[in-house]
Amino acid sequence: MTKITPQPGILEIAPYVGGASHVDGVSDVVKLSSNENPFGPSEATVEAFRRAGFELHRYPSTDHGALRAAIGAVHGLDPERIVCGVGSDEILHLLCQAYAGPGDEVIHTEHGFAIYRIGALAAGATPVEVKENNRVTDVDAILKACTRRTKLVFIANPNNPTGTMIGAEDVRRLADGIPETALLVLDGAYAEYVEGFDGGAALAEGRDNVVMTRTFSKIYGLGGLRVGWGYAPAHVIDVLNRIRGPFNLSTPALAAAEAAVKDQAWVEKCRADNTRLRAWLAEVLAGHGVPSDPSETNFILARFTDAGEAAACNEYLKSQGLIVRPVGSYNLPEYLRITVGDEASCRRVAHAIGQFKGGAA
Ligand SMILES: Cc1ncc(COP(=O)(O)O)c(C=O)c1O
């Protein structure tokens, strides 16, 4: 028996399992399991990535100055208060590493994104799960769960995997009500899918206890490249920059993300397509007896009669080459999370679920 052991908490982590991408024996698959943009990145983004190929012998920028300037210009934010990471996952992990340790508590919601718990445990802190109100973040429950040990409060707004969001007044109440020694982290991975929503930037702007995180993995179609960013008070930026790897982002990743954020026409097109196809998909599934909560994201959380039916439907969809996401690990066993794909994929998945329900009736 080895005497070499990891830090306390590490072995409590259930390794993160990403969305499946293949089905044995099926070649023509549609992947609707990871909330990726079915249209991919914009042309300008791919071109910038290609051009970066000529610079591969050079180390990348350590301060991400050009990318931060571009993000700042597009969002009207101070580039000095922006930090970039290897996906927003890295920012979430860095926050845990910097602000939570043994004896500290990290709050996340009942059906919150898995990385909050993983990041807390990796830092030796105690994750605290707070009930939601019918799959919606419950601000009062979170405030009640806060103690003097609370160091971080994570909410995704809109949330994954529920797709729901809470309003600005509720978020402000949360920022006002958490202990003085705690940071509120607003994870805006899906913020771009909500027309006119700033992801919490304005709130983060004026306070010293709010951090907003964003990603290039969703609407920008760059999940494969791994770029995210955070907007935080200067004191937090200073701390995160002390612990992040100096070369955490590669030259192609920086170049592509910069081109991507400058191409807001692509973002608008993708948001409009998503809004239209999401409404269509939700309506057709509801007609097949598979309802969902109103989603503000690029996926819907489809509700089946029970866990058995959800599992059976998942198997049926797989047999049809359609890969969606079972969410039992998020304590939602009677649901399947379905990414809004392109029109053909939406039609295919809607048709297959109709067949499944028709056959099962
Ligand atoms: C709520 C939420 N936050 C953060 C992330 C992480 O995104 P990334 O690390 O790709 O930026 C995801 C990805 O699925 C997510 O759903």
From TrEMBL:
Name of the protein in its database record: Histidinol-phosphate aminotransferase
Organism encoding this protein: Lutimaribacter pacificus
Gene3D superfamilies with a match to the protein in the record: Aspartate Aminotransferase, domain 1, Type I PLP-dependent aspartate aminotransferase-like (Major domain)
UniProt-listed GO biological process terms: L-histidine biosynthetic process
Domain of life, per lineage: Bacteria
Subunit-structure text: Homodimer.
Residues annotated with N6-(pyridoxal phosphate)lysine modification: K218
Keywords noted in UniProt: Amino-acid biosynthesis, Aminotransferase, Histidine biosynthesis, Pyridoxal phosphate, Transferase
Essential cofactor(s): pyridoxal 5'-phosphate
EC number: 2.6.1.9
Class in the EC hierarchy, top level: transferase
Gene Ontology MF annotations: histidinol-phosphate transaminase activity; pyridoxal phosphate binding
Similarity field: Belongs to the class-II pyridoxal-phosphate-dependent aminotransferase family. Histidinol-phosphate aminotransferase subfamily.
Pathway assignment: Amino-acid biosynthesis; L-histidine biosynthesis; L-histidine from 5-phospho-alpha-D-ribose 1-diphosphate: step 7/9
Domain Aminotransferase class I/classII large: 28-353
Catalytic activity reported: L-histidinol phosphate + 2-oxoglutarate = 3-(imidazol-4-yl)-2-oxopropyl phosphate + L-glutamate
